[in-house]
């Protein structure tokens, strides 16, 4: 497999895959396409921070192990969220890039534990902006990881809550202009998540193009073999055909 740090030096950094791991077939359907598309990173959730406890919560460690196995079969690096300190020890060997989700950006205990556990390996940490956090708070959160010894961090902007959510059909307000500011504030890469920013697959291509034009170092995009059947975020995931359209539209 190509060296992880070398891949992270390429632009744009592209990460794609389903919101949540649902089955071997579902995950393999996406994974098998990525080597041909020159994409090295697959995303997928096993521990899901769902707004309602009644919603599908993901398959936890079993799901993570299954994803990791499929990712390695296709020589892909796996990006996945770890939500709490209890899961961290058992889960982290099966994740190549640890995602800290928007809701956990300010879970400082978790950030410290992640930083400490990965200080030797320097495993990359994808730190997503809290949807109600300022950029300064995002930078401060990253220092909790740094201070414990890991300075291999990638920031991810993923949309924020504004009064537009009262009457716009966007799930969040895409914080596109923040790309400029955050890049001036940090030496770390800044990538953009058009899927959670928009909440609707039909906005994903234009927002992705805008993010790269503004200077984003990459994109993390949700993609599912059958979005309408997805167990989470079914509105915003691209089909594989739409993902190919996106790649064409950014000349990837
Ligand atoms: C996700 O990437 O699936 C996710 C839940 O993102 P966020 O933490 O940005 O809501
Ligand atoms: Mn999602």
Keywords:
TIM Barrel; 252 residues; 10 helices; binds manganese (II) ion; alpha/beta; eight-stranded parallel barrel; single chain; globular; binds phosphoenolpyruvate
Short description:
The protein has 252 residues and is an alpha/beta fold. Strands 1-2-3-4-5-6-7-8 form an eight-stranded parallel β-barrel, surrounded by five helices.
Description:
With 252 residues, the protein is of the alpha/beta class. It has one domain (4-249): Aldolase class I (TIM Barrel, Alpha-Beta Barrel), CATH 3.20.20.70. It is 38% helix and 13% strand. It is built from 10 helices and 8 strands. It has helices at residues 4-9, 24-31, 60-73, 85-91, 108-117, 135-147, 178-185, 194-198, 201-214, 240-249, and strands at 13-17, 41-43, 77-81, 97-100, 125-128, 153-157, 190-192, 218-222. An 8-stranded parallel barrel has the order 1-2-3-4-5-6-7-8, surrounded by 5 helices. Strand 2 (41-43), helix 3 and strand 3 (77-81) form a beta-alpha-beta unit. The longest helix is centred in the first third of the chain and has 14 residues, at 60-73. The radius of gyration is 17 Å and the shape is globular. The structure holds phosphoenolpyruvate and manganese (II) ion. Phosphoenolpyruvate binds at residues 19, 45, 49, 101-103, 128, 158, 196.
